Amino acid sequence: MNQHPRYFSLTVLLFAGLLLFSACDRNTVFGGLLSTPKLTPREAYLAALDSTGLANTQLGKAWRRAGSRALADSVLTQPPFRETGYFRAEDPDAIAYRMELKTGELLKMKLVTTPDSIRYFVDLFRDESTDSTVNFRHLLNTEEDQTDSLDFEVEEAGTYILRIQPELLASTRYTLDLIVQPVYGAFPVSGKQNRDIWSFFGDPRDGGKRDHKGIDIFARRGTPVVAAVDGMVRSVRDRGLGGKQVWLSDPVRHQSLYYAHLDSQLVREGQMVKAGDTLGLVGNTGNARNTRPHLHFGIYRRGYGAIDPHPYVAFQTDKTPGVRADTAQLGNIARVRRSNTRLSAAPQSRSRQLATLDRYLPLEVLAASANWYRVRSPQGLAGYLPANALENLNRSIGNLSLDRPVELLQAPTSEAAPVAALPADTKVDVVGISGDYRLIRDPDGATAWMMATPE
């Protein structure tokens, strides 16, 4: 593994040891606070840090800031999604994933961590920010004893953010899987699937005089129509535009499922049914008499009227893309292979461009998704690059023989703290460039920054 630029002082290392010692007996330090029912596990952890005075230390403050920064700088993604990432003990950090979800979808998260003894805090938020305010409303969190999975039913379409953060002083790797499935587990027409939906919610009807209030699923006459969810048959009737129809009540969500244009109805009012039970047979009664047989399927929610039923029943793949980028690079420093390399907001070629990176710029490899790396620049800018846009630091890009003593820096900025010094006549390899600074490797193999022309 490539070494990171040297930037730890003896004070920080001693403090890290103190925190590790304090965290050894979690039952003693955190026991009472974690049982507080009004606090999320992360809030309880922060309260415990505060009670011991650790929250006001530099590392404690950095850990708190990392959680807030992750929400503000969340990574845009869309399920199905898989990412394998790495957190370093000496660098408190968090990551948040932003996604657009629809009413009727079920978000499913799985998190595998190594080692599995490390505590992770997983929280789901809804972004309710406006042009003038920032507001991330907390919705859900995993429990302390089960952080490996989370299911969330979307009741309101919008932007959602999933944040994960390990405890302090934990070097750990994680693999996150995100998939979306329909809330209802049974497709309304037996043996059919998404491709058999030929007309969608909101499509114009009667020359644009009205909108379609559901979806049309085409099938042969007599194909069984089934309950998408457990419920009670509220109405069985034959009238109006819908012809022969069945209304099924979903008491959990306070909404009714509407099955129309049936050839025949096979249930009675008041009957309790399970998901998958047959309600009737596909036909073309009502105003569908001049069209091919199909089921008109709609959902009506109390207080809302007709809502889009498609997300409730349209199945999506439950297979996440495999990680093809080399995960052995996680936690390493690599550099940009070519000039004018595009840094993207998401691991997709058409995603928003964040910046153009110069050749030889060193980057920390934070995570891998498909054939992309999520990276962070020395200035703190994070984004995604194709895996083949990076190269390791094994090969030097130049050599220097120092003609005077040189102070080595933690980062390529004028405010960076010095971490070491090299005497005159020391020969070093240049392995990266950031503006007027050079990332060098000294004779011992350690890396640090120096001015290109030290004064």
Q: What layout of secondary structure does this protein have?
A:
Elements: H1 10-23, H2 26-34, H3 41-51, H4 58-72, E1 75-76, E2 81-87, E3 95-101, E4 105-114, E5 120-127, E6 136-141, E7 149-153, E8 158-166, E9 172-182, E10 197-199, E11 204-205, E12 210-211, E13 215-218, E14 224-226, E15 231-239, E16 243-250, E17 255-265, E18 272-273, E19 278-282, E20 294-301, E21 305-307, H5 310-313, E22 333-336, E23 341-344, E24 353-357, E25 362-369, E26 372-376, E27 382-386, E28 390-391, E29 398-401, E30 406-409, E31 418-422, E32 427-434, E33 437-441, E34 447-451
Parallel strand pairs: 1-3
Antiparallel strand pairs: 2-9, 2-25, 3-8, 4-7, 4-9, 5-6, 5-8, 10-13, 11-12, 13-20, 14-19, 15-16, 15-18, 16-17, 17-19, 17-20, 20-21, 22-25, 22-28, 23-24, 25-26, 26-27, 29-32, 30-31, 32-33, 33-34
Helix pairs in contact: 2-3
Describe the structure.
Residues 6-36 have low confidence and may be disordered. The protein has four domains: 10-182, Mitogen Ypm (Jelly Rolls), CATH 2.60.120; 194-311, Distorted Sandwich (Glucose Permease (Domain IIA)), CATH 2.70.70; 327-391, SH3 Domains (SH3 type barrels); 398-451, SH3 type barrels. The strands form seven sheets. Strands 10, 13, 14, 15, 16, 17, 18, 19, 20 and 21 form a ten-stranded antiparallel β-sheet that branches. Strands 2, 4, 7, 9, 22, 25, 26, 27 and 28 form a nine-stranded antiparallel β-sheet that branches. Helix content is 12%, strand content 42%. It has five helices and 34 strands. The longest helix has 15 residues, at 58-72. Helix 2 crosses helix 3 (41-51). A hairpin with a 3-residue loop joins strand 20 (294-301) and strand 21 (305-307). It has helices at residues 10-23, 26-34, 41-51, 58-72, 310-313; strands at 75-76, 81-87, 95-101, 105-114, 120-127, 136-141, 149-153, 158-166, 172-182, 197-199, 204-205, 210-211, 215-218, 224-226, 231-239, 243-250, 255-265, 272-273, 278-282, 294-301, 305-307, 333-336, 341-344, 353-357, 362-369, 372-376, 382-386, 390-391, 398-401, 406-409, 418-422, 427-434, 437-441, 447-451. The protein is mainly beta and 455 residues long. The two termini are 32 Å apart.
